[in-house]
Amino acid sequence: MPGRRRYAADRKAALAAFLGTSKAKEPHGRTTRTSNILAGHVRAFQAVRSQLYDNITLWSCRINGEPGVAIVMVDQVGEQKLAIMPLFVAITEGMDLAFDDEDSASESEEGGGPTREEVAQAFSLNKEALEPGGS
Asked: Which of 24, 72, 86, 87 pairs with 2 at a CA distance of 20 to 30 A?
């Protein structure tokens, strides 16, 4: 059944790309990772999605000195002692987030979604509308 083999190969390639284990050839012949996702990231993501863990919560924190929020795993390791393992952190104002597959065109005024100013204005309008006595 060639169709089934092709489907299995496609699924295996997709999984390898998701896990960051697939390699891509650069023009000069060396191979590079196509993803920054490591096995630890996948395990943390699975823990967040699983109903088996009841010790995962949101935790207020500071990220590079800025107020932030993290998804953490909390374990009691002793009397009045907690072990807190951050799994993921929320984006903060000072973070510069870029995705590997973005091209320079996404930074131009064409495409790429709303500008920071547009988002701030929409957030401000929504905040006013949700406040008691707001419009």
From this structure: 24
